[in-house]
Amino acid sequence: MLNGVKRHKILYFKFLILYKIRLLEKHEDIIMKIVIVFLMVILPISSFAQNFSSAKKELIKLYTTYPEKEFYCDCPIHWENKKGVVDLAACGYKVRKNSERAKRIEWEHVMPAYHFGHQLLCWQNGGRNNCKSDKRFNLMEGDLHNLQPAIGEVNGDRSNFGYSLFTNTFKQYGQCQMAIDFKNRTAQPRQQIRGIIARTYLYMENRYKLSLSKQDKNLMDAWNKLYPPSKWECKRNKIIESIQGNDNPYITKHCQ
Q1: pLDDT tens digits, one per residue of 174-214
Q2: Cβ(216)–Cβ(200) under 8 Å?
């Protein structure tokens, strides 16, 4: 049997619990408001459905509001409704082969879809089309941080090639400082965007727990250090955070 002291303690704790419950009931509205504010602060509020289709719509809004230039060749873009048209003459671009794709803007995955997709079972069992219903693939494919406006022809030529340094001569696209080595399946981007590319690769690797080759990792680490973010890269990162709900920390730490 419980002695008197133990009974007293139990009664005391029961009374204390009931008293706190009554207090909570009395201030329920206030507490609820505090909880809502807390959730609003700690949880990013976004109606953005992260997939490639939604991403393209958001990027069109972004680039019509902030008329920045095309990614690979620094060509001006003007928008006709939802269609991005490239001013090839203004940047000295010369068509290599595909004049139709050269005129239009396409949304380029900086880290190619193949690179992150082939690490998933859905891709291994049936390629990209087999990943359409895979949640993780849709998140990666629609990640705004990994998408840039590119001349369609260059986007097509780059394909799923990785990046490297292999030439000092740029003749394929007129004055555009972009080179594609089709034989060795690699692309060399202009100097001004190497840091952006590096921080995108490092972000994708970290956020989605992807594998990078030792060669790619070393190159991206080097480019990240050599080429700090521009004002636009910092601003774009904040805009995307407001849409998607997360920043690219490899950019953020340079911009603060």
Answers
A1: 999 999 999 999 999 999 999 999 999 999 999 999 999 99
A2: no
Cβ proximity of 200 and 145 under 8 Å: yes
- Per DSSP, 146 falls in state G
Q: At what angle do helices 231-244 and 194-208 cross, to 10 degrees?
A: 30
pTM given for the model:
0.81
3-state secondary structure 55-118: HHHHHHHHHHHCCCCCCCCCCCEEEECCEEEECCHHHCECCCCCHHHHCEEEEEECCCHHHHHC
**Torsion region of 89: left, alpha or beta (phi above 0 gives left; psi -120 to 50 gives alpha):** alpha
User: Which among 119, 134, 116 is positioned nearest to 51, based on CA atoms?
Assistant: 134
- Residue pLDDT, tens place only, 150-177: 999 999 999 999 999 999 999 999 999 9
Mean pLDDT of all residues belonging to the chain: 88
Beta bridge partners of 150: 106
Tokens representing residue 136 in the block: 């993780």
Pairing of β 105-109 and β 147-151: antiparallel
